[in-house]
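Example record

One chain of 61 residues, shown exactly as stored in the release files.
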Amino acid sequence: MITHLKKEKGNMIALLEKLVNIDSHSYNKEGVDKIGTILQKEFEALGMKVDVHREKNLATI
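Predicted structure tokens for this chain:
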């Protein structure tokens, strides 16, 4: 596991940097939705099933 994490360290840091640079405070629907979309793609790439609950006025989770 440690070998895998060391190999993926650069990718993990790049993803973290991408996420923290998105304005996604509680009242920023667009930013929160963007974070959700990025994480959805990341989780699906790992073979996980993702259920998305679309919201009109609130952030989609």
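Notes: Helices lie at 2-20, 29-45.
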